[in-house]
Design brief:
This protein is mainly beta. It contains 1 helix and 10 strands; from the N terminus they run αββββββββββ. The longest helix is centred in the first third of the chain and has 17 residues, at 3-19.
Amino acid sequence: MHTQPIFRLALALICVASLGCAEEAKYKSVQFGAFSREDSKLTFLAQTLVLKANETIIGWAFDIENPPKQFTIREVISGPPGTSWPPGPGEVTDEGRTVSVVKTIHNPGLKFLFHNWTIDHTDVAGNYKATLYIDSKLIKEVDFVVSN
C-alpha cells in the first residue's frame, strides 16, 4: 500500500517536468545550393556545381520543425589549393583555404534560408567542401565544384 502514493508522486513529477520541456527543433530537407534574385523574389536551387562568372550566392535552405527562439549556425567552407579567403567576418585557417563563420539567428521561421557567400571571377575553380553545424551539431556536409 505504501508504494501507491510514491508511484503517484513520481508520476506527477514526471508530468510537471514534461510540461516545462519544449520539443527539440528538427532541421529537415537541408540542402546546399545557389540563390538568385529576379524581380525582388529570392529563388533557391539545390546544386553542387557553381559557376563563378555569375557572381553566384551560395548557401543553405531547410525547413525547421519546432523552431527554437534562437540557434547558432557555424558554416565552414574549404577550398582547393590557391584558395585565399580575405579577412572578414570569419576565422580563416589552413593557410587561407578554410573559413568558418558563426552567426546566431533569432526567431527563425518554419522555412529558413541562409546564404553568406558569393562566388565570383576571383575565386579559384575546383573542389570545395561546405559544412553546416547548428548549435555545435553537424547537420550536413556537401562537396561542390566551382567552375568557369
